[in-house]
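Workshop exercise sheet. Pairs work together: one partner reads the sequence aloud, the other fills in the structure field after running the prediction. Swap roles for the next sheet.
Pair: D.N. / O.F.
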Amino acid sequence: MDNWVIEAENLTKVYKMGEVEVHALRGLSLRISRGEVAAIMGPSGSGKSTLMNMIGCLDQPTSGEYILDGERVSNLKDDQLATIRNRKVGFVFQSFNLLPRATALANVELPLRYAGIQRGRKERARAALELVGLADRIHHRPNELSGGQQQRVAIARALVNNPAIILADEPTGNLDSKSGEEIMQLLLGLNQEHGTTLVIVTHDPVVASRTPRIIQIMDGVVVEQDTGNRSQ
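Structure field:
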């Protein structure tokens, strides 16, 4: 069996704006193996965000094939796509996307609620928060946490369903340099210790330089894949 967790073949995405067609992806192909860490980079308008939406099952390609963790998702309906997204993808966003009135524990429980899981939900959420170093903050709300702590809650939420991939969109973008470095160490440590597949979408070359592989996107296609060994 192939060890690919992400297989994208000849993906295109065309947006229609009135009579104008915007080609965001132009036959893009990409493979990422299980347990890999990769950064996706590209200038504004390169198709980077569109590709992130495809990888995260937030959108469908106009044509081409996408297989996530062995499941063909290119032609699924919205409700099927939502189910796959909840089971297979853990999202970490630049703006954290936490519910402001919910505790850290309740925020981390959310993917389990959406999955209809009842038994052991709080225990799993608590274990995820412990994994990211927030065992003593589980009853705090976001406004009682620092930016770095809020991002740790978001990472715990991304991990709680044991997804096939963690998809991080500018995960250090709203953090100071010290907190950003701590978050990168945490993400890379999760990969090293647990084999978590990690895809980081970023414009920051410092963040990208921490990953073993940099995938450059330009004009809707992959133009360069750097797999040089870099310090983590």
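Discussion prompt: The chain has one domain: 4-226. What would you look at next?
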